[in-house]
Design a protein that fits this description.
Layout (H helix, E strand, L loop, with lengths): L1 H11 L26 E3 L6 E3 L2 E2 L8 H27 L2
Antiparallel strand pairs: 1-2, 2-3
């Protein structure tokens, strides 16, 4: 029963009372020292959790980068095909 009381206390005081820096996005608040106790790491997968919920981070390419990668891949494949054709034709 003591554990539930501690978690409830931590959840209620997880945010700092200090105002967040002005350059931070709206509604983003600083964690208090007690709030950092809400973080956990799954031992086998290494996934990060906060208050039992998976923290998802993604690094995805933007449209420009994705288009550039596709263009480069198509160019490399076409160069390889043309080189193979030249090789087999003896040029």
């Amino acid at each position: 029963m003591r554990l539930e009381t501690d978690l409830s206390d931590i959840r209620n005081s997880r945010f700092s009372r200090e105002p967040a820096p002005s350059h931070w996005p709206r509604n983003v608040r600083q964690l208090s020292a007690k709030g950092s106790d809400q973080f956990g790491i799954h031992e086998e997968t290494g996934n990060l959790y906060w208050d039992g919920k998976l923290v998802q981070t993604t690094n995805r390419l933007g449209n420009f980068e994705r288009g550039l990668v596709i263009t480069l891949a198509v160019s490399m494949v076409s160069l390889a095909v043309f080189d193979a054709i030249r090789f087999f034709l003896g040029h």
